[in-house]
Design a protein that fits this description.
mainly alpha, 11 helices, two-stranded antiparallel ribbon
C-alpha cells in the first residue's frame, strides 16, 4: 500500500514537467524561417540536396519567350541560318513568278498550234514558226526546234524536241536545287550551333561562381544552344516543302509541252525528204538531183611472189 501511495505522489508532482511548453508551441510570427528553433520544411532540404535555389513565396512567374531575344541568344551561328532563310524566301518568290502557266505555256500559243495541227495533211510549218516567234516561251522554243528539223526523219525531229525540252527543264530546275540544298544544309548548321553551345555550357559549369548553381548554369546553356537547332528546322522544313512543290510543278508543265510536241509531229511527216526550213522560217525544197558521193575503193593487194 505504501509503495502505491508513493508512486501516485510521484506522478502528480511530475505532471507539469510532462506537459508541452506553451512557449514552444506559440512561436513568434515575426521569427524568420531559418532562425534557430524553427521548423525546416522537407522541400527546402530537397532543394539543398539537389543544388537548386529555393523559390521564395511571391516570386515572379517565368516570362514568355520573346522571338527577338531568342534569336539574339543563338549567337553567331544564327548569321548563316539567317542568310539561308533570305535565300529560301528570294528563290521561292522568284520561282513562283517564273513558273506561272502563262509564262511557260502561253494559252494563245497552245490554241493556235493545236488548231493548225488538227489537220495533219495541211499543217503549215512556216505559219507555226511565226506563231512561236510571236509567243516567246519554253514551249515556243521546243516547238521551234521541231519545226527547224522539217524534212528530216521523224525520229530526228522527236530527238531534237526531247533535247530542247531537257535544256529548258534544266534551266528552270536549276534554282530549285538551291532550295533542296538549303533544306539539307540548314539543319546541319543548327546542329553545329547546338553542339558548340553544349560544349560551352558544360565548360562554364565546371567553373561556377558562388551565386549560381550547377543546374541553373546548365539549363541556361542548353536553352541557348537549342535555339540554333530550332532556327535551322524552321528554315529547312518550308524549304523542303517548297522545293518538292516546285519540282512537281516543273514536271507537270513540261509534260504538257511534250504533249503539244506529239500533236505537231504527225503534221511534219509529209515533208520528210521533200522540203526543209531555212533560218528565216521559210520552206525550201530539198535538192535531190545531186548524185550521192561515190564510194572510194582501195586497190586490190598485190600478191607477193
Amino acid at each position: 500500500m505504501s509503495i502505491a501511495l508513493l508512486w501516485s505522489m510521484t506522478l502528480v508532482f511530475s505532471a507539469p514537467a510532462l506537459l508541452p511548453d506553451q512557449r514552444l508551441v506559440a512561436q513568434d510570427s515575426t521569427e524568420p524561417a531559418g532562425a534557430p528553433g524553427s521548423i525546416v520544411d522537407a522541400a527546402d532540404i530537397q532543394s539543398v540536396m539537389n543544388d537548386e535555389p529555393t523559390q521564395q513565396p511571391g516570386s515572379d512567374q517565368p516570362s514568355g519567350i520573346d522571338l527577338l531575344s531568342l534569336i539574339a541568344r543563338g549567337g553567331r551561328f544564327m548569321i548563316p541560318i539567317g542568310l539561308m532563310s533570305m535565300l529560301v524566301v528570294t528563290l521561292s518568290v522568284e520561282r513562283m513568278l517564273s513558273l506561272r502557266t502563262e509564262k511557260i505555256l502561253p494559252r494563245s500559243l497552245v490554241n493556235q498550234i493545236t488548231d493548225l495541227a488538227a489537220k495533219h495533211e495541211s499543217f503549215p510549218p512556216s505559219t507555226a514558226q511565226e506563231i512561236c516567234i510571236e509567243n516567246p516561251s519554253p514551249a515556243a522554243r521546243v516547238v521551234s526546234a521541231m519545226l527547224m528539223r522539217t524534212g528530216q526523219p521523224l525520229g530526228d525531229i522527236e530527238r531534237a524536241a526531247g533535247e530542247a525540252l531537257q535544256r529548258e527543264a534544266d534551266r528552270y530546275a536549276g534554282p530549285v536545287r538551291w532550295l533542296t540544298l538549303a533544306a539539307a544544309a540548314t539543319p546541319l548548321m543548327g546542329l553545329l550551333g547546338t553542339v558548340w553551345g553544349m560544349i560551352v555550357a558544360f565548360h562554364e559549369s565546371s567553373t561556377l561562381t558562388a551565386d549560381r548553381s550547377r543546374s541553373e548554369q546548365l539549363s541556361e546553356g542548353i536553352y541557348t544552344a537549342l535555339v540554333t537547332t530550332l532556327a535551322g528546322l524552321a528554315v529547312a522544313i518550308p524549304a523542303a516543302i517548297l522545293a518538292q512543290y516546285l519540282e512537281n510543278r516543273i514536271a507537270k508543265l513540261f509534260h504538257r509541252i511534250e504533249e503539244l510536241a506529239f500533236v505537231i509531229a504527225p503534221g511534219l511527216v509529209r515533208f520528210v525528204g521533200r522540203s526543209r526550213m531555212d533560218e528565216e522560217g521559210q520552206l525550201r525544197p530539198l535538192d535531190n538531183g545531186t548524185p550521192p558521193p561515190m564510194a572510194i575503193h582501195s586497190p586490190p593487194p598485190v600478191a607477193s611472189s
